[in-house]
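Second attempt. The first submission of FAD/NAD(P)-binding domain-containing protein had a stray character pasted in from the spreadsheet, which I only caught after the job came back as garbage. Lesson logged: always re-copy from the clean sequence file. Corrected sequence (868 aa) follows.
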Amino acid sequence: MAGDMPWPEVAVGNANHANTAVVIIGAGLSGMCTAIDLIKRNNCRNFIIVEKSGGIGGTWHDNKYPGCCCDVWSTLYSYSFAQNSDWTREYPGQEEILAYLVKTAQEYGLYKHVRFNTSVENATWDDAAKKWRVKVKTAEGSKDAEFNPEYEIVTDFLVSAVGQLNQPKWPEIEGIKDFKGRVMHSARWDWSYDLKDKKIAVLGNGCTSAQIIPEVVKVAKSITVFQRTPNWVIPRGDAPVSSLWRNVYKYVPPIRWRKRAAQMDFREAFYDAVIDGQSALAGEIRRQSTTMMREQLPGREDLWEVLTPKYNPGCKRVIISDDYFPTIANPKVSLETRPIEKITASGVTVKNKNGEAADVGTEFDLLVCATGFQTTEFLHPIELTGKNGRTLSDVWKNGAQAYYGVTVENMPNCAMLYGPNTNLGHNSIILMIESQSRYINGLISPVLDARRKQQSLSISPRPSKIAAYNEKVQKVLMNSSFADPACKSWYRNEAGLITNNWSGTVIEYQDMLSKVELADYEVEGTGKAIVEKNPVVKVGRVVEETQVSDRLIAALSVLSVGAVAAGWLMRNSKYALAIARGISVNNTQYVYYILSFRHTQALTIMEQAYLTPMSWRPRPMDTSTQPELRVPTPTSLSPVERDAAQTHLEEARQTFMRGQMAIMDQAPAQDYLPSVNMATQNFVLKFLLREQELKIQGLEGKSAEQTGHVGDTSIKQAETSQVRAAYSFDDINGGTTRREETSPMAFLLPPIEFAQNKQGEKPEGPTLDNTMSQTFAAQLNAMPFSAEEFEQSNSATAYNVPEPRVLPLTPGSGVLCRYPRGRKQRVEKKRKPVPSVRGVHARAGLRGFVNCKGERVVPPKGAGSVLV
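This time the job returned cleanly.
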C-alpha cells in the first residue's frame, strides 16, 4: 500500500485488500516465521496475516499469568536467523519473549501485513479457480468492526499457524458454573483481580501450575493445589545474564552460536529419556527429581509418597523448577490428592478412598484452572472444507494426521505449522517450526510461480504417503514413554492415539524436511508444468548442533598447552605455577568429553594434541586422582584421520597465537576479529571485555589445585601489564555459575605478561607467518627460565622442562627472546598492515629485533616475524 506520497496510496477499488497470494492464520512464533521466510526465500510481500488478538506473539501474547516463563533456555528459544543477544535471564519470562517477538516483527516489517482483532470463521477450497476463499470476522466492539465487520479473502495458499496451544481447555467438573467466587483460566488471566489475602484453589499441577503457585503464594492467604497425578520435577538452574555476557553475545556472535549449539546438543541427548522410560537418562531424571524432592522437603515422608510419579519420565511433560517443592512445603499451601467430585457455590467436594464425598473445608475466593489447552483439535474452531466439499473434521474423524505434520489429505495448497505429531518433549519447538516454515515455503514457491504467470496450480499430499508416514511414526510412539498406560497426558486423544508428539529427534525431522519431493503430491492445474520441470525443491535445514564444535575442541587442545606456557610467562606468580600443576592429560580430556557430546572425535583430536613434537608436552602429576577414560591409541587412526586432526590442531594453534597477539597489542575488536576463526573469538574477547572489570582486583580466590580443575571464576587481574581471566565453558554452554559455586567445567585462558623494555614500554605486536607451530615452540624454548628455576618452584615434578635453546625459523632468520628483567630490547616499528580476512596478518609487526644470542636480526623481505 505504500507509495511515493506521505499517506497510504492504493489502487482504486483496492483489490489486494481481499485478494492475496498467501494467507497466514496467526501472528505467533509459527506465523511470523512463515512470513519472514516468504520475504527472504520467495521474495514475496503479497501476504496477509490474520490475528484474532490485538498484538503479535500468539501464545506469549495470550498467556500472562503470574510467573509465566519458558522452560527452554533463552538462547535456544529464538529464531536461528534472528538470535537475541539481549536475554536478561537463562530462562526467559513472558514479557521478555513477547518483547523479542515484537522487535523481530518490526525488523522484518510484518506489522503492515497483520490484521489484528480478526478471526477466521471458515475457509473453503474453490476447485475451479484453485484458490481458497477465507471468511474473516473482526472482533465485535472493535473500531474495525464499524467499517467492515466481516469479509472474504481469496488466496492461492492457506497456512495455519494457530498451533497446539491456542484454545484454553476448561475442566469438565460438575458445578463449576455455580461457583459464586471468581473463576479464571491461566491462559486468560485477569490482572484486574486483586489476589491479596485471597483463598485460592488451583486446579492442576502441571508446568503452568508450577509457575503460578510460587508467585501467587507471596500475596495469597492460602492456596490449595488439586493434584490428579504427580509430575517429575528436575532442577531449573535459572540465573541472570550479566551485561558483560550480553555484550559478548552481541559483539562476538560465534560465542552465542556455540552456546546455542551446545544447548541443542544437550537437549537432543534427552530424547532417549522421553522416548525410552528404561534408558539411563530416564533413570537420571528419576534420580534428580527424587533427590531434589527429598532435599527440599526434608522429613516430609507424607509428601514424598504422593509427589513421586508411578509412570516413566516423558509420559507427561517434565517440570523444570527450583521452587515448586519448597512452595508445596509452605504453611500457606496444602496439597489435595483426592479426586474432585464436584464444585459447590463456595468450595470443592472431593471423593475419599471409600467413595464417600467430603468437603475440603475451605471456602475459596478464586478458582484458577491451570488445565491446559485443547491440544488435539488443531484448527479449532475454524471450519475447513477441501476438495469435493469434504471437511477437515471428516478427514480426521479417526484422529488427526498429516504428512510430516504439515499437509493434510484433500486440502490442496494448505499447510500447517506445529501440526499433528510435531510437538517435542525434549527440545525447543522453534527448531521444528523453522523446518516446517522452510518446507511450506518450498511448497508455496511453485504456486507463486503459477500466480505470476496467471496460471492455476494445486498441490495436495497423496493419501498413500500420509498413511505410510503416520504408520511409521505411530509404531515408534506406541512403544515410547508417551504411551505409558500409567499416566494420562495431553499428548494423546480420547482414543489413546498419540497425535501431538514427534517420534524422533529434531535433527531427524530437520533432515526429513530439508527438501520438498513434489512426487509425493498430487498436482493439478494449468501450471502443472512448473512442478514437472522442478520436481524437487531443496530448502535445506539450519545446521546448528555442530556449527563450531570441531574447531572449539581443537582450540581446547591448545588451551591446555597454553596454560602450561602461562607458568613460564608468569614465573613470579606462584598462582600461575599452581595452574600449571593442576593441568593433566586426563583432566583436560574430561573437559572435552563433557563439552563436545562427540566423545570419540573429541578424544581423538585430544590424543593428537599430545603426539606433536613439542618439548613442553605435559604429563599427569597424579593419574590416580584423574577420571579414567578410554582414549583411542594413535595406531587406531587412519592416515586421513591423523592428517585431519593435525590440521585442526595447526589451525587452532595459529588461532591461539593470534589471540595472544591481539591482546598484547590492545587491538580493537573490529580490527582483528575478522582475522581469526570462530574458536578464537570464543575466548579472546573474554580478555578484552573483562580487563577493566578485573584489573583492580586481587588474586584472592580458590586455586586451580584446590578445585582439581584448571581455572576458577574467582581468578582476578593483579597488574595492568598482565591480562588474566577465568574463562568458564560452563558459562558458554549454560549460563553463569550459580550459587557462587566453582564451575566443574571452568577452563583458564593462559595469562599473558607483556614484553617490556628497560623503560617499561610495551613493544608493538608482530605479524604472523604460516610456521606457527615452530613459532610457538621457539617462543617457549627461548624463555630465559631454566630447568633449575622451575625445579625450585616445585613444579618440575609435573612436567618435562627442557633447557632454553634457540630454534631457527623458516622463512625467518632468528627468534625473538624474552629477556631477564632490566635488559634492553630494541624495537623498530613499521606501518601497521591492513588485517587479512584469512588471518595471515593480524595487527602489526616487528621490523627487526635482537635474538637470544644478542645479535640484531632483520628478516628477509616477505618473511614473517615471530610472536612474543
